[in-house]
What does this fold into?
Amino acid sequence: MLFNSPIFLFLFLPIVLVGYWFAGRRLRNHFLLGASIFFYAWGDGIYVVLLIFSIFANYLFGILAARYRESLKGRMVLWLALSFNLGTLVWYKYGVLISANINMTLSAFDVQHLQLQNQHIPLGISFFTFQAIAYVTDVYRDVACPQKSLPRFALFMALFPKLTAGPIIRYGEVSEDLAYRKIDLYLFSSGVRRFVIGLGKKVLIADTIAKTTDHIFAISLQDLTSVLAWLGIICYSLQLYFDFSGYSDMAIGLGRMFGFRIQENFNYPYVARSLTDFWRRWHISLSTWLRDYIFIPLSYALMTDRIRNKIAEGNYKKNYLSVFSIFVTFTFCGLWHGQGYTFIAWGMLHGVILGIESLWLGKVIKKWKAPLQHAYLLFIVIMAWVLFRSPEMSFAFLYFKALAGLNSATGLQYHISLYLNNELLLALLAGIVGATPFAKNITVYFERESMKRFTIVAEVLFIALILFASFASVADVTFSPFIYRRF
Amino acid sequence: MELQNRLNELFCEVFDDDDIKITPEMTANDVDGWDSLSHVNLIVAIETKFNIRFNQKDLLTIKNVGDLLNCICRILSEC
It folds into this structure.
């Protein structure tokens, strides 16, 4: 069930909200759990069994990890939990790719091979396996107490707002909320506002821009002019941000409506001034997960005594080991995003540049003027998105050629004027402004006492407007209330 | 405090900046160049210089320099 679908907005959510209210404190969690399981089953049918199994398994892992924390058995439990969760993820996500590669090798030796056909990837598996890994590791490290109540733990894992596409919540963030949530009108209304903004981001901005992006990326690469290629990738960059941050906003908003305070997942990434800064603002729940569960353990694991001494003596200013860890971490990040060499390449590219920034480029960039810093960051990130969007490496390569104007495109067949319609331009404008903290900054001005009444009314009207426009857009896909289409 | 001075010296070395003056409220945001990568350097330097080992729980609960000082203090049991 998509958040921006009529059935969710007009049926599921209202019913769940009302039911939640009437369930009262004692039955609230169970009701929400039931709704979440239903939500998952609606979206993915029989695979809900996998989710339920994962919940049981990780519940046990948590209890055991805490009990055997001090002994070798604890380590074994941790490794078992990691293998289970990662194994499930790898099996479903990369089973086909791995078996295809094994088959290729085996056929070279004329060996009988098994065919693993198109594997269905269970809904949200990348997210809930990572959430579980974080939970068991935190319990093992004595940073969190295990959740002894199975229904509460199940709710932690299955909470439907974050089930489809995160954020990846840490147990510590919600452990109190799981046990006790006061019905807070302020939190609820802030949740509604956040949800509506997220919905608007997705439906009004991202989906509008997506139409153009898809059209441009469908053009045969030999005929793609440089201008169109640039428009295409800039559109994609905005689309991706508004789609994902919009979804995160909806997840956070929904969480608040039910009393859960989920952490932010985005912080205006496109105003970052270095790639290092970018990753503190983009998909924050993932980058912090990678930092805490891959980068830091890996860095320490790789430390040799020789290097430790060097660091202590001040002779190891350039931490090459950490640079290697960064590279591995981001390759892993690429892998997590999807099966395909393009994603791995994307991750590696980010890893390499982050490494270079940490070694010397970071210090150099700090001395640049702000516009140059922004241009640098946007250039790198946008170029990297080409890999992210391309179905294959060969496509990416040809797209880069198109960007540089190195193909035989004449612009006769596909001309940019065909793609620049009012709807797109308005969405792009909203997108560019919305990608900066401009709106947030001006609300600070409007929050002054003298403006309070005006601000509240304006904000309510604004939210209502977005809600109406989004509903209209969702209810009828071809309807564009204030923006007319020419294309 | 003696411990704070020694730690300050270490900070200056790790972050290559002799002007650093640590305070208990200081966090990574306050020091130029203190990110996840240099944090590893810092921790390792502290562990080696003070001849101690932090455990996982310590590392994850340290939020500022004050926490760091308390932690080192506790492990060395010399406050």
